[in-house]
Design a protein that fits this description.
The protein is mainly α. 66% of the residues lie in helices and 9% in strands. Helix 4 (73-80) crosses helix 5 (84-96). The chain is globular, with a radius of gyration of 20 Å.
Length: 163
Amino acid sequence: MHEHANGGERHGETAASASGVDQEFLALERELTVFLRRARANQGEMAREVHPDLESSAYGLLVRLDESGGQRATDLAAYIGVGKATMSRQLRALEELGLIAREPDPADGRAWLVRLTDEGRSRVGRVREARRARYVSKLAHWDRREVAELARLLHQLNRGMEK
């Protein structure tokens, strides 16, 4: 179901088309808007499943640590796209919840690595597995090649947005 702010009329498309924007990019913008809104709502749910007091924005940080292992706070901040102060606050909250721990960086004794605790890894793993099961359920009628193609295209989009 496509959502239109003006109750279904596609006024914005007409105006945008007149200015030379291709219909494909208008459709992309519309679908990404719906997708991102749903993704934000789902991220909040997943964060609460990890821990009832977990901020929605911290879920992606936990997933990053789950996938990449220990990382410096500065590297995490750059990856997530937040400042050092925001990252410090999020890490402090995650540490208080027992989901992460800090340890000296073996490559540089002056720096610290942030890693998931066993509890954090267990909680994040359960939520990620449940999310994958939901994808399997929702996309059961898709051909696996279509799922692979969607993953490939999303990866390509994400890489293009990094530049």
